[in-house]
Design brief:
Radius of gyration of chain B: 13 Å
Radius of gyration of chain A: 13 Å
Distance between the termini of chain A: 37 Å
Oligomer: heterodimer
Largest interface: A-B, 23 and 24 residues
Strand content of chain B: over 45%
Distance between the termini of chain B: 37 Å
Largest sheet of chain B: 7 strands, mixed
Largest sheet of chain A: 5 strands, mixed
Strand order of the largest sheet of chain A: 1-9-8-3-4
Structural class of chain A: mainly beta
Number of helices of chain A: 0
Number of helices of chain B: 0
Structural class of chain B: mainly beta
Order of helices and strands of chain A: EEEEEEEEE
Number of strands of chain B: 11
Helix content of chain A: under 10%
Order of helices and strands of chain B: EEEEEEEEEEE
Helix content of chain B: under 10%
């Protein structure tokens, strides 16, 4: 799997938007960009994924650069419950062995 | 919908002992994964099953780790003999199909003394 680069940690205030960046300069044409998050003492949970176009769901938005070498996960209005480690992962759509390769992620701290 | 079930939640053993973890995936999910998460790191894939066949076990330390999914439903991960560096959370995940969203269990925390 291609490598991603994320900041180790970020801090934001409650009820403000949060923009979590991810660089993936070696992304291939068949790689989807996936985001998962891991709350304390829990397993990771799916947040969102996309290929080329920006994506929105009830949890977040994903903005993908035109050249696909970077992306940004947007939490529109952070709550204390959003404090977690956020992982940006590239996943080949070709099938077969496709287990996610996690990096260290970004530790998001939310201040009340 | 019931989530991915794992047991035990916590296990403490001495080095050189053996341990087994059990996982029951979401009903109908053909793909099952085992991950190892050491404190402060992201999860690392150990093995991936598609039904009862192994798709990827390239990062499984086969001298001491084994996993099976005999009937294509629940799965067991075994460590024998355990080493200190095996202390970690062992996460099981499942997906409806290989490229779908992964659903993770809460994990089994292993401490090796």
């Amino acid at each position: 799997d291609a490598k991603t680069t994320q900041p180790n940690s970020m801090e934001s205030n409650e009820e403000e938007p949060v923009h979590l960046p991810c660089n993936h300069s070696t992304i291939s044409g068949t790689d989807y960009i996936h985001w998962y998050r891991q709350l304390p003492s829990q397993g990771p949970e799916y947040v969102i994924h996309g290929l080329t176009s920006n994506v929105n769901n009830r949890m977040a938005s994903l903005a993908i650069a035109e050249d696909r070498k970077s992306s940004t996960l947007i939490l529109h209005r952070a709550t204390l419950r959003d404090a977690a480690v956020y992982y940006c992962i590239l996943r080949d759509s070709g099938g077969g062995a496709d287990g996610l390769t996690f990096g260290k992620g970004t530790h998001l701290i939310i201040q009340p | 919908e019931a989530g991915v079930a794992q047991s035990p939640r916590y296990k403490i053993i001495e080095k050189r002992q053996s341990v087994a973890f059990w996982c029951n995936p979401i009903s109908g999910h053909a793909t099952l994964y085992w991950y190892q998460q050491i404190l402060g790191q992201g999860p690392k894939l150990l093995i991936q099953f598609q039904n009862n066949g192994v798709v990827d076990d390239s990062q499984l330390p086969k001298d001491r780790f084994s996993a099976e999914r005999l009937k294509g439903v629940d799965s067991t991960l075994k460590i024998q003999p355990a080493k200190l560096e095996d202390s970690a959370v062992y996460l099981c995940a499942s997906s409806f199909r290989g490229t779908g969203e992964l659903f993770f269990g809460e994990g089994s925390r292993l401490t090796v003394l």
